[in-house]
Design goal:
The protein is an alpha/beta fold and about 475 residues long. The chain is about 25% helix and about 20% strand. Strands 3, 4, 5, 6, 7, 14, 15 and 16 form an eight-stranded mixed β-sheet that branches. A six-stranded parallel β-sheet has the order 10-9-8-11-12-13, sandwiched between helices. Strands 1-2 form a two-stranded antiparallel ribbon. Keywords: Oxidoreductase.
């Protein structure tokens, strides 16, 4: 799976027990205690399960760790799955989600080399990064290149690592080939399109809703396909009767079979997610059963006769591959510095509007990456750590001057509060969105649902254990 569907290596970022902020007048000692905010998933379910909580204390890095003051966080499809209890790499609630973030090194633990206080870094972890302050192993951090904003840095790691590895390590993409990219306007989709353009004469087919087709054409998609009104298999066959060389499949279920049948001889299908599981705010047992029933399966002898390859990718299970991931990040940073790739930011949301941010992605309204920031740009906090073996950075403003808070003004209106004396009084205002409640048939017994739940959970566990790999490597 990817960052859209599931992702991120190493161990979760260190989590402090969530503590609600006490009422005013709780004493001088409580008032002086350092505080920072975190988004916490209290239980599995809808958007309301993720709330802002205030935590107290001074997280200090242990040997080999660094503490980072977070400036921007990435929202990934895996976070949506995690909220519903469909992402097996998330620790049990209550837990702070978040696979990636970017910020400034605040403190460095004993034995850490290559990182120092004040460095701007990108962070990758299994969970726990939707916080103002995080403490992580130093080898889970990567230096930001010159000229990169914190929002771009929070949009790079999960999506671009996934896109790079499935395109070049598994897909072995070469000049004059063709590719089908599902969810082409999403985070991994936009990253894959940009990376395809680093190879000569690649014909890109991309599925997305019709409203996104102009943006896809501008980004380099030769043949956008509206999956809602068209049969994408037929549309591809009209233009390329033999099919395509590579299919990127984040959907799962019956779409994996369709993708495999679209491959030319020597073609490669890379499956990296099960987005078809996500049909509403909460876990949908019918969608789980349907996806499990239609799951693609093939034996080695059949592959031998068809001259095709099937590859499975899940970044979340590459915990120990530090050198491999670091090598990919180095290549991506190089491509960014050369101007060949640039993360596309769809929208930026404060922690308080995390529900709107998740809705933006889940309803597939985004074109590019959805970003979370812990506060409005005019709010600043100071944080100080103390330890004999820790180098500290004190009294530094957490916030940064966001000159482009909302890259897509058609999604959110920027309004100014006349009562706010700050010149940076831009407020995020999202038009109200009415929820669409989906009704399902009522069954007479609970036995059916409990059995279906058991089947779904078993399928998710078995999927996480299965890894179909192909020895397809590229010197790209």
């Amino acid at each position: 799976m990817s960052g859209e569907e599931a992702t991120a290596p190493p161990a979760p970022a260190e989590q402090a027990p969530p503590q609600e902020q006490q009422a005013a007048g709780g004493g001088d000692a409580a008032a002086a205690e350092p505080q920072y905010r975190a988004l916490v998933l209290s239980g599995f379910g809808g958007y309301e399960k993720v709330k802002v909580q205030v935590r107290r204390g001074s997280p200090c890095p242990r040997p080999g760790e660094i503490t980072v003051r977070v400036r921007a966080c990435g929202l990934n499809f895996a976070d949506l799955l995690a909220r519903q209890g469909l992402y097996e790499r998330l620790p049990p609630p209550p837990v702070s989600p978040g696979l990636e973030c970017a910020g400034t090194v605040q403190a460095v633990g004993e034995g850490v080399t290559g990182r120092q206080v004040g460095d701007k870094v990108m962070v990758l972890a299994r969970a726990g990064l939707w916080q103002e302050i995080v403490t992580v192993p130093a080898n889970q951090t990567y230096l930001m290149p010159d000229g990169m904003s914190f929002e771009e840095a929070a949009a790079l790691l999960v999506n671009y690592i996934t896109a790079y590895m499935i395109l070049f390590d598994f897909g072995n993409l070469r000049p004059n080939q063709s590719i089908l990219i599902h969810m082409a306007a999403g985070g991994v989709g936009t990253a894959a399109i940009q990376l395809c353009k680093t190879v000569e004469n690649i014909t890109i087919f991309g599925t997305a809703s019709a409203s996104k087709h102009d943006a896809l054409r501008e980004s380099g998609v030769a043949h956008p396909i509206d999956y809602r009104t068209m049969d994408y298999v037929e549309e591809v066959r009209k233009i390329s009767p033999k099919g395509v060389d590579v299919v990127l499949d984040p959907l799962g279920g019956s779409d994996t079979s369709k993708g495999f049948n679209l491959l030319k001889p020597m073609g490669k299908l890379i499956t990296y997610g099960v987005a078809n599981l996500l049909t509403g705010q909460k876990k949908n047992l019918m969608a789980m059963a349907k996806t499990w029933w239609n799951q693609f399966s093939i034996n080695a002898l059949h592959l031998l006769h068809l001259n095709k390859a099937v590859c499975g990718y899940h970044l979340g299970y590459m915990d120990e591959e530090v050198e491999l991931i670091s090598g990919v990040v180095d290549k991506l940073v190089g491509l960014y510095s050369q101007g060949k790739i640039k993360p596309k930011i769809d929208s930026v949301w404060p922690f308080e509007q995390v529900a709107d941010a998740m809705r933006q992605m889940q309803e597939k309204k985004n074109i590019g990456k959805v970003i979370l920031i812990s506060h409005c740009p005019f709010q600043c906090y100071a944080f100080k750590a103390s330890s004999r073996n820790v180098r500290t950075l004190a009294s530094e403003s957490i916030c940064t001057d966001h000159t482009q808070l909302l890259p897509r003004s058609d999604l959110c209106d920027i309004k100014h509060d006349a009562s706010d004396p700050s010149p940076l009084n831009a407020r995020l205002s999202q038009p109200a969105v009415s929820e669409q409640h989906i009704s399902f048939p009522k069954f007479q017994t609970k036995f059916f649902f409990s059995g279906l739940q058991a089947v779904g959970d078993y399928w998710l566990r078995s999927m996480s254990r299965q890894s179909v790999n192909a020895s397809c490597y590229s010197n790209h």
